[in-house]
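New to this. Please check this fold:
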Amino acid sequence: MKEIELNGNRMTSESSAQEYLFDMFDFPTYYGDDLDALYDALADIVEETHVVIINREAMENSSYGSRLMWVFEDAASDNEHLTLAWTEEESGEYE
């Protein structure tokens, strides 16, 4: 199983979040850099992947971050290969 730890502090604005997610997920070069493209990329994951997002509060407190949270939650509910967890504690293991 692939495990990815994401930091919510890095996903509060569109520009920083999209670049960060592109790097962390190793999306293809044609990735569209918007929320629809992110949903599509997450929905297309076929390898068992567990995503842990730390610093949820930072995302909740930004307009873009809160929309991004919905995308992750929708994709995880629609893709059986993708699981999602939220925590405030950083493991430091994946970043």
